[in-house]
Amino acid sequence: MARDERQAIEHLLARHGFHFSKSKGQNFLIEREIPRRIAETSAAERTNGVLEIGPGIGALSAELCRRAGSVVAVELDTALLPILDETMAAFDNFSVVNADVLKLDIPALVRERFAHLTPIVCANLPYNITTPALTALIEARCFESLTVLIQREVAQRLCAAPGTAAYGAFSVYMQYYTEPRLCFEVPPECFIPAPKVTSAVLRAEMRAAPPVDVADEAFFFRVVNASFALRRKTLVNSLTTAFGALGKQKLTDVVVSCGLDANVRGERLGIAEFARLAAALREAGG
Ligand code: SAM
Question: What pTM did the predictor assign?
Answer without folding.
Answer: 0.96
